[in-house]
Amino acid sequence: MIRGRDDYTVRVMGPRGGERLEQFDQAPTRLYEDLAVKRLFAILLAVWIAASPSAANAAHVHLYAGQAATTWWPGIDGYIRGSGTVMLNPNTNFHAHFVNLCSGGNCGQWVQIGQYQGSISVITSAQFVHGYWENVDKCGIYRIQDLGRPPTPNYPYYVNFVGMVATSPECSAQAKYSFRQGSWTNPPVGTGYMANNSGIPIAETEITSDGAREPINANHFGANHSKQYQAGYALHIYNGANWLLWNDANIAGTSTFAQAPPLRTTLNQWAAFYTWD
Amino acid sequence: MKRILRSSAAAGAILAAVVAGVIAGTSPSWLPLGESSRTVPAEQIRPGLMAVELPTATPIYDLAYDAATDSLWYAASDPFLPDRLVQYVVNTGKQSEWVLPDTDYNGYLSQVKIGAAGTIWLTQPYRLVRFDPRTETVESVEYPLDAPDALPGADDPNHPSPGTWISSIAFSGDEVLVARNNVAAISRIGQNLIEVDRLPVPEAYAGALDMAVAESGEIFLVPGYTETADIAVRRVDGSIAPLGVEGQRLTEMGGGVFASGGSAGGSVIDVRGGATGLLPSATGIDSRAALHPDGGAIVYDPSSRSIRHVLEGSVIAEYALGAGDLVDHNPLTGEGVVATLAPAIHDLVVDSQGRTWFIDGHRQAILGLDL
Lengths: 277, 371
Prior knowledge:
The complex is a heterodimer. Helix content of chain A is 6%, strand content 50%. Chain A has one helix at residues 35-51, and strands spanning 2-3, 8-13, 19-24, 60-69, 75-81, 94-103, 109-120, 123-136, 141-148, 154-166, 173-181, 190-194, 200-210, 218-221, 236-238, 243-245, 254-257, 263-268, 272-276. In chain A, 52% of the residues are buried. Chain B is mostly beta strands. Chain B contains 1 helix and 33 strands. Mean pLDDT of chain B is 84; it is low at 1-28. Strand 1 (2-3) of chain A pairs antiparallel with strand 29 (325-329) of chain B, so a sheet runs across the interface.
């Protein structure tokens, strides 16, 4: 996950030659469903920072809890239910809950889909949990897209390899991954790319905060609406021909990770778990 | 197939619910009850760059321009409020909205196209929708998952790209051609939304991501979502001829098509396979392009991170989208990863005055640009 600014320096060329430089550092007016809330938070944040004696020394916090396999696979899916929270600072912070495949040296490329709240680079949702997907490809190109509010809080997400494709003259052939959500009959909601046709499956909660850690409540992976393991909601790993339940019998070698907080609690081995404060 | 006719009375009832959402402060700028249109002026950002506010909480992916009415058309989806078809008249700023059949899909592979007599056609995953601006009537036909000519595994959730969702549409006279994922045939649909014929295609072109019809009646096909074949033309006799050019989107040009979005570059292709490059260099899979009234083209080039006006093989104007290097966190180790933010230019069109309108998926706005 990233923090960044959308800051454009414009080089505008006139017709038939000539150019001028313009600093373009203000985004066009846009109306999000929670824009008014975002502005209110900005005001409240300014007041909080002015009043807080520790604000000047606030550190960047990055924490995560989840699980990862140790072998490479071409797909991962599962239901995710990210809790909405009243965020401390949705303009600079986020918490996200996702399924992910990573490959390349030291997992430097990934395809990822799930739910978030807050601000991740150029996408933002201060008040509501939104779906999103994110990709870093083999040439270091970062793509991200907001998917809006999920129709139901607990919603299935899929990412899997679908074929090789030539992406650009500079980056040439890459493995193409389909991002999907909702019914398995739905078309993709986005496309990501990596060098390899498989990666390490990860299911994870991630928190990034400037200053105090953002609360995350409880966030469920592979569980039903009653926060219980249910096979049809579980996390699965794709082997290229079938979606296999994520367990030791199907996928040997899964490790967990968590910081205190956030914490991770198993509901059913690797097929379902939740993360919490 | 089920045909649905949605009346304006039903739409009014839905608008009442929309108003409630507006009052609750949970929706974007919907139209007030009883109003079907309003004036939305473009916001001047910089000289030559304007923005029009999108009435949606989620990004849109396809834009159509009708020169006859000087209008932009697009479909806006929302998981909690009715989906809408939106018309924006460029020179007046008048924006009108009509309620569409509901879908949970974000529109990433949906299409909006201008059909015969100014009708607006759009695709949802399993529904073809037609809007007649003269009568303000929305009609649609739904397609079941189970489809004739479906390839093996199309209805298997273990398939890497399952489903028989609509992948593209094109127009052949008064008929509409419909391609569906994992379906090895193109449906020919009459104006009554009933299928009149099916045109077989090989597996690589099942679910063609785009189509265009030449004056000869031959059909240009972009391969399906999981395929890597060249653009091909389906001859009248049903034979398939790959054209040696890669691309993602097609724009009809009388005797041929303008292909964009491929690693091989933007080319004008005729039905015999001749290709004339319009762009000075190859473009990537994320590229988008449209023809300009001056005979050139406007192209979003991901490699240079710019939108360019190309004429006679040369770039005569360019709008740079700027650099965006970021530090990301490796999801496995948490270590910092430097990456370059790619712009999200989902689509662009050029109006009859030569102004470029493009979707910036990161800003949820349609921007107008003079190049």
